[in-house]
Design goal:
By secondary structure, the chain is an all-alpha fold. It is 67% helix and 0% strand.
C-alpha cells in the first residue's frame, strides 16, 4: 500500500484514507501484543501462577410490589355493567342520529319535488 501511494502507477490509486485505516489496524495489533507482553510480565513476577479473578456477585432484585389496589371480582363486574350501559347509550345515540339525518334528507327532498 505504501509503495502504491508513492508510485501511483497502479489503478485505482491508493488514497490517504486507505493508509489511515491500514495504520489503525497495525496499531490495534501493536496494542494487543503489548497487552499480551504485560500479562506475561505479571505472570513472571507472580512466579508463573495465574491470579484468580474474582467475579463480583450480581444480585437479582425482585420487582417491588405495586401500590395499586388489587381489583376484586365485584369491581370487575361493576366495570362490565358500566361498559354495557355506555355501549347501550352509544347505540341509542347513533340510532337517534340516523333518524335525524333521514328526516333532514326527507325535508330536503320534499322542497325539490315541489318545484
Amino acid at each position: 500500500m505504501i509503495t502504491d501511494a508513492l508510485c501511483p502507477t497502479y489503478t485505482p490509486p491508493t488514497k490517504v484514507s486507505d493508509l489511515t485505516g491500514f495504520w489503525e489496524m497495525v496499531q490495534l495489533q501493536i496494542d494487543e501484543t503489548q497487552r499480551s507482553h504485560d500479562d506475561l510480565l505479571k505472570l513472571r513476577k507472580n512466579n508463573w501462577v495465574e491470579e484468580e479473578i474474582v467475579k463480583p456477585v450480581v444480585k437479582v432484585l425482585k420487582p417491588k410490589a405495586s401500590n395499586k389496589p388489587a381489583i376484586s371480582k365485584a369491581t370487575t363486574a361493576k366495570n362490565m355493567e358500566l361498559a354495557k350501559a355506555r355501549a347501550e347509550k352509544m347505540r341509542l345515540f347513533k340510532e337517534q342520529m340516523k333518524a335525524k339525518k333521514a328526516e333532514q334528507e326527507r325535508e330536503n327532498v320534499a322542497p325539490m319535488e315541489a318545484q
